[in-house]
Predict the 3D structure of the following.
Amino acid sequence: MTGRFIIILLGLLSVATVSAAQESPERIDTLTAATVTSAIDRNINFTQTGLTKIDGSAFRRGFAVFSSPDVLKTLQTLTGVSSGTEMLSNLYVHGGDGSDNLFLLDGVPLYQICHLGGIFSSFNTDVVKGIDFYKSGFPARYGGRTSSVVDVATKDGDFKEYHGTVGVGLLDGRLQFEGPIIKDRTSFNVAMRRSWIDVISAPACAIVNAMNKDTGDKQNFGYSFTDLNARVTHRLNPGSRLNANFYWGNDGLRITQETEGHDQDGSLSDIDIEDTRFSWGNLLGSLNWQKEFSDKLDMRLLGFYSGSRSDIRMNTTMEYYRADYTDIFRQDTHNRNRVNDGGVSADFNWYPHHNHHIRFGGTYILHSYSPSHSYSQYDTDSGVVLTDISKNDDIHSFGNEMGIYAEDEMSLTRWMKVNLGLRYSLYEAEEKIWNYFEPRAALKFQVSPNVGIKASYSEMSQFSHLVAATYIDLPTNSWLPSTSKVAPMRSRQVAGGIYGRLPHNMHLNVEGWYKTMSNLIEYKGMNSFFPPLTDWEDDFKTGIGKSYGLEVDFGYETEKTSVSAFYTLSWNWRKFDDIWPDWYLDRNDNRHKITVVANHRFTEKFEMYASWNYHTGNRMTVASQYLPAEEGAWTGQFLYESPNNAKMPDYHRLDVGFNFYRETKRGNMGVWNLSVYNAYCRINPLYASVVKDKSKLAFEGLGIGIIPIVPTFSYTFRF
């Protein structure tokens, strides 16, 4: 009951996408802060395929639902990315399973990347400086995941003046403040974001409970999330600086339902209490030293801690009062997950010649995994104890991960550039050692000043597995290491395309990919809110996958107007011998995906945004035949053609947004944002079911959707 309530709750809230406008770079270096780039110049000048760079300032003037632009929902609009369930911040990149994306916040791995199951992402756009998003052509300096890299960099504080941002929206508020600690030497940048759903729900529940006072029924609901980012930067000297970064994110959810029964004389006869409490979040801290030894050599040394935690407790109490005894039933379920990483990395940039840019370095991470699950039940009848059980299931495991790499960005001629790299990855856990050499290569031909052709090959390894019994990103999921039974996930990907500027401020990029995946895991058990921990390797089967497709990116951009159209044609296959003997389509096999985004600034005080999103429906497994019950049998038998053999209805929606700018008398800026999610109120199905119609002797499908048009507003004050 509680699990269904949470899923429905996820469907009642929504966040829309943001368009990212960008400018041109002067120098490319994703080890340091992300640079401001345009979609036109980026794809021609960079060697890597599948790279998108987004400047943080684009978020701060973009579309917002529930007051805040969202980093992950922006990435969902890009080609080659499937979004999964509506509103949730899942990324399924080039056929990935959602757990195979590497998220970095200032170089530190981040595990819990969403709030409330994915409706909000954990990245506060008020402090984001830039994002590097890789779908293919991974440089050798990245490792540990198999599908994508999302590298988020935060801003330094202003070294000369104090200023900030205050934002108030429908469901949350934001505060950001920055300035000098020591002018021109030391700066700070602090930002906090908090939802106030709990503030809204508390009086609403009080009113409902007052109306139900006669029945004795009480319901309480509260949810809140908090993000806190802090960054301190100190310039040691002109060629050396030190950054200290901190991030804390926390979610809290509580659902309580109390029901009372009374006898005819009004005395209390029974009481039923269900209490569910969720708490989950992240804690990150890092110290980053950047040093320029000369014009040809610089270094970044990073020490960090990254922790992820979740606690879920479900209590049920039922008491029945009689004249001479009391019956009691109590049930307590507690699920607890902990991941703690401590690590250090060193990255060097060396320019021995104007035609060579050599990067080399290494990283070491000590992983600690501590998931646990406990269950207890106490039951009495007429004073006699019927059940008194207690079960505990926990895992404590450590993993040592190491990677060393070297890569060389070479300009062989004026029209040919090559990036060759090699990464060696090693992982040790439970007396088992896994190690791989991962070659990386990217090649670019500059056909003309306006046309480039690129190709790439990359191998990636992933040593941590997300143990999940559902497809939704819930805090019930656990991270566990590769073992002797479950090998690391691996991917091999080839990508290539042509990228060109067109006349009249237009560009056209066409890119294709082919990717194979091995040692994928899939849950093969009964429906369960909590994934199994005891002998979990036996409940998760391993298989292989492949994905291939074509991406088309067309855009037009002027000073006031930008229009982008993205199209993806893709296939996504799975093969698990323990589930099905042949290849079958993955649940996120969205054959066609189209996104059209437009932004126009009418005046200095008014601009408008619109985004239309379409993709073919997700897939699900349904029965294709029904054999009637034989004589003496209670029920018949359902037959299945293959896993994921049915396609849900196609998905599409329109989002629009308006920004109104007003400058105050003191020169500050106020921005009113009005946004409409799902403007023409298309009720897209969140899930579907299939039932057997006895009158027609056939099966009928039923799509269930609950998200209508959602208008929201916010006000942002910049000072």
Remarks:
- The helical segments are 2-12, 39-45, 56-59, 71-76, 197-211, 536-539.
- Residues 1-41 have pLDDT under 50 and may be disordered.
